[in-house]
Amino acid sequence: MSVNRRTFLQGAAGAIGLAIAQGALSKIAYAQGAAGTLRVAIAKPAGNLDPQSHYAIWAIQDLMFEPLVKYGKGGQIEPCLATDWKIEDGGRTLHLTLRQGVTFQDGTKFDAASCKWNLERWMGLDQFSWMNCSKYFQSLDVVDDYNITLHFKEPVLALMQELSYTRPTRFLSPKSVGADGKFKDPVGTGPWRQISADDTQSVFEHHEGYWGQLPSYERLEAKVIPDARSRVAALRAGEIDLVGGFWIAPLTPEEGKQLEGAGFNVVVDPGNVTLVMAFNPDRAEALKDAQVRKAISIGIDRAAISKVLYHGYAKPAGNMFSGALPYAGAQYDAPVRDAAAASALLEKAGWTGSPIRSKDGKPLTLELVVSPDAVPGSRVIAEVIQSEMKEIGIDLVIRSVDHASKHTDMLEQKYDLGFFLTYGAPYDPFGSIVALCLSTFKNDVEGKLVTDPVNLDPLINAATAASGDQIQPTIQKVYDWLRDNDAIAPLVYVPSIWAHSKRLHGFTSPVTEYDMPYDNILLEE
Q1: What distance separates the 2 farthest-apart alpha carbons in the chain?
Q2: In terms of domains, do 298 and 258 share one?
Q3: I need a surface site. Which of 49, 88, 125, 249 has the fewest CB within 10 A?
């Protein structure tokens, strides 16, 4: 199997040298022609918007393409293009009732035939085998114009959750591909249709035939602003209305605090993505000892990272997943830093001496690979951890790399310690557990957080094969193994930070980091 679905947006890290004056909002002059237009920052051009490709900004695809069901707050599955569903045969059969009166933006009717055409573009194909509903797909029956039945070879864990993903599950007009079957135009059933797109912006207007409620404003402009400082400056200047989102146009906590202090509306969601430190015992012999891993973990002051570096926006993590996600397991408090206990563990493991400990003549030197491009703020976090490790006798060397090199190094295991981000809703917990922790699953994007073919793989396989009441206790065994072996070190639950102008009212954070938050917004003229 292979995974090829997830490309990190280039993030921004570190402090910004902008002095934001109090009262500046009163001097903002909104750009001409902005009435009725929501202007959102994006960090890069939208890319290839084919729902079955893997390179576009998810949130832009979310504007145009809809799923059968949506992932709601707390993991609730809500109707969208399917109004009803029924799972039978222990998870091997899915009956779907499709929404009537839906048309694609080119006027094509959405019905069982167009639904079948879309599903067969990806279900059962090897490139999408990272999803169980594709891996185990057997056949599809059209019952009538608005009812279909899907059959699977095996029960599909989290079936409806998988069908809520942004890609590849969303629906494209059959007329928007060429005779060769290749994607031509982004035409979906959603409330927004694309008017134009280039390297500077993507422009959208209402899909007037939309089956649901259209936004109150008529136009949405997604403006490409790669540089974080420039995004903040654009908000201050009134050139954009909204900026933020981890995968859209991220704001650092420091930027959020500065904008908040200047009177802008800053909305922080606790988030459901976890920043986790990985140990690579295959490269660093010292990390094969669980005592050393535990010493490193309890030697880190998560509360300080949250308070100082995240300005209180982040919460210290004691688990791989936050309790905001379904099947997140028993929730534990984050470890409290205990330098004395960490030092004692290292002594017990045979690492002695000062200022840098050694064993058998070898110093306890470890390399931490970071990429501020991939994980905003990671360089600063690494420097704090470096100082904390020095206090307990570990020489931590930081190697900062660019976005591309980070992923190459993770894949090739060219690191002793490294930062990983879990996928968040709607993919987790199973998405991250399988892609980042199952040794037999080939992840050619992020590499592996931790693997153990003998001890961990059987637990993961049992969890993904479980159903009903057995899911929670079975997946808990995975979490227990990770915790009992100090196999990973969760650090913080990464917050989702948004900032918007006073012109915008009614903003709420999206349910997932892959959605564009365009609903319920009112704009002042």
Answers
A1: 76
A2: no
A3: 88
